[in-house]
Amino acid sequence: MNGNLPGAGADSLPGPGGSRYCPHESAACQFGDRLPAAFTQAFIGSTMQLMTSLVDERARAVFPFLTGILLFASILELVLKLLWRMGTYLPLKGVLASIYFTLTPLQGVLFNLASLLTFIILGAVVYVAYRGKLWEGGFNLVIIASISLLLVLSAVGMALSPSNHLALLYIATSSVSIIALAGYAVIEMPRLPAKLAVLLIALAFLSYRYYAAAHIVNNLSGSVSEPFLAIEILALGELLFAVAPFALFVAHTDVRKPGEILANRLPLAVATGVAVAFAAANVLSPAMTSVYAIWTLGFSLQHPIIVYVLSAWFLFFTLVACLKHRETRYIAYALLLIFVSGYTHKLTYHHLLGLLGLIVLVAGKRMGVSGR
Question: What is the CA radius of gyration of the chain?
Answer without folding.
Answer: 27
